[in-house]
Design goal:
The termini are far apart. With 509 residues, the chain is of the alpha/beta class. The strands form seven sheets. The protein has a four-stranded parallel beta sheet. Strands 1-2 form a two-stranded antiparallel sheet. The N terminus is likely disordered. The longest helix is centred in the last third of the chain and has 53 residues.
């Protein structure tokens, strides 16, 4: 039974004030929703009476009961739990979880456990009983040249041999029917698909350490390329999360930034990031897995927008879209624990390459404007720069606005020349040199890129041209639709008149 189709998204129900949950899922034969985040201070006796296919304690190997007792959670990287265990435990130094996650196994000689898999110590660290330790400074100084060259050569050779071995094994597997792409796709879900692929890799001769490394690499890639679904942005669960955290009925995304991360209990703080293995993950790795997927559209927008504006604009996009979409939205896909809490941002020398690489990889852009009349979009340096780069790279751009703004723009079009002139003047008011960013360091970086390359006037001219072309295309579309509707009215009047004349002739006969 898919409970979501009956109850909607229930992962974030606020149930702390409920006094009696008995019989909530009475007589359901299966249960497949994640409610491990529910506040269970209320009475939850007999909540699953009659449900027979729910991952609840006792839990399978590699997982343990969630903190609220409602379901099983997979153990974090480097932790294990035997079948039926009450909690996950960390593997001791020098060991990693087995393939089943039920026990730990020792790392091969010459390696230590780190981030959930075995790896050698990197120079200038030396393998000791408790892990990798820094060599004495004098020894490092005396032998630095020889050791650096030798160790680097050996490590490169070793990694090359390991990589070659793994690749050869995968090639053999592909020839024998193993589908690595299918494994990658199945990894978007947690249970139980990965175990089937793990067993296949073991039969091909790969070690547990090699398999775990492959899985971690795939999960890291998925984390970096995962986008948020429009369905999640439009969901009651996200709206509830935003309002409860911020204390506002209609917060903007700067309000949510403070409420989600710059607070005592940041979202995702207890989830290891697949990208670096450290605690604290991106929102896209924290939210329900069914609401994320391979990025299809790069969203150009600003955190000053209110939730209602994004909700309305995305609803407009959904009404016109014919395929599934997953948005690259910086709020969701960037690890804000690293950016906001640790201030480990991208250097200015890397900013241009990383942004252009992401935009090129995703392949299409959706630009969200809050309004046509003096839009915030054209006063923010990031969005102005994104429009310029999209034009430079020939990336197709779709413009959307909230429904009220779209209706207002259409009213202006109906006013004829004066209305169209007002639209074009407002949407061509671009001044990149004086555009702003919330983070002054970002503002300086982006303006530095513009100043050192094509210059502000060039950017302004390009963005003005894009905006005017867009609004003129909308005007043309509206005009064509009005002409088409008028033609249909004429046809209908003609048919009615013809029918009346035939009726009159018949009556005279």
């Amino acid at each position: 039974i898919q409970l979501r189709s009956t109850y909607g998204e229930i992962s974030y129900w606020e149930v702390s004030a409920v006094t009696d949950m008995s019989g909530l899922f009475e007589d359901l034969l299966a249960f497949n929703e994640n409610i491990t985040a529910w506040n269970t201070t209320s009475n939850i006796d007999r909540i699953f009476h009659g449900a027979s296919s729910f991952h609840r304690p006792p839990c399978p190997a590699g997982s343990a009961p969630a903190g609220n007792g409602l379901g099983c959670k997979i153990c974090d990287m480097g932790h294990f739990a035997a079948e039926g265990s009450s909690h996950c435990e960390a593997c001791s130094k020098g060991s990693i979880p087995s393939s089943s996650g039920a026990t730990c196994q020792d790392c091969p000689p010459g390696t230590v456990s780190k981030a959930g898999f075995c790896q050698p110590c990197q120079f200038p660290f030396l393998l000791q009983e408790d892990g990798c330790e820094l060599w004495p400074f004098l020894v490092v100084t005396v032998g630095v040249t020889f050791v650096m060259v030798s160790v680097r050569f050996l490590l490169v050779c070793r990694r090359s041999r390991k990589a070659a071995k793994v690749e050869a094994t995968l090639d053999t597997g592909r020839r024998n029917g193993f589908n690595a792409d299918k494994m990658y796709q199945d990894l978007w879900e947690e249970f139980p698909e990965i175990e089937r692929h793990r067993s296949a890799l073991q039969r091909m001769g790969m070690t547990d350490t090699e398999i775990q490394k492959q899985v971690q690499d795939m999960k890291a890639r998925q984390s970096e390329t995962a986008g948020v679904s429009p369905r999640y942005l439009l969901s009651d669960s996200f709206a509830s999360l935003a309002s409860q955290r911020s204390g506002k009925a209609d917060p903007d995304f700067n309000d949510m930034k403070d409420a989600f991360w710059l607070c005592d209990d940041p979202l995702g703080q207890d989830v290891n990031c697949p990208r670096d293995g450290r605690p604290g993950c991106a929102l896209v790795d924290w939210m329900p897995r069914l609401e994320r997927g391979q990025q299809t559209h790069f969203i150009s927008w600003t955190w000053r927008y209110k939730l209602s504006q994004i909700h309305s604009a995305v609803a407009v996009f959904q009404s016109e879209s014919t395929s599934d979409a997953f948005f690259y939205m910086c709020f969701f896909v960037n690890n804000q624990h690293r950016i906001l809490l640790e201030a480990s941002g991208v250097g200015s020398e890397e900013l241009e390459n990383i942004f252009e690489s992401n935009l090129t990889r995703v392949g299409q852009m959706v630009a969200i404007l809050d309004t046509w009349d003096q839009p915030t979009y054209l006063t923010r340096i990031w969005t102005v720069y994104e429009q310029f780069v999209a034009t430079k790279l020939n990336i197709p751009v779709t413009f959307i606005m909230p429904r009220a703004a779209m209706d207002s723009a259409q009213d202006q079009m109906l006013r004829g020349e004066d209305g169209i002139r007002r639209l074009t003047e407002s949407l061509s008011n671009v001044d990149s040199e004086h555009a702003e960013a919330w983070k002054k360091e970002d503002e300086a970086k982006v303006k530095g890129l513009i100043r050192d390359t094509v210059g502000f006037q060039h950017v302004n001219s390009h963005v003005r041209q894009v905006m005017v072309q867009w609004i003129l295309a909308v005007v043309k579309q509206q005009l064509e639709e009005r002409i088409e509707r008028a033609q249909e009215v004429v046809k209908e009047v003609t048919r009615t008149k013809s029918g009346s004349e035939r009726f009159g002739m018949g009556a005279r006969m």
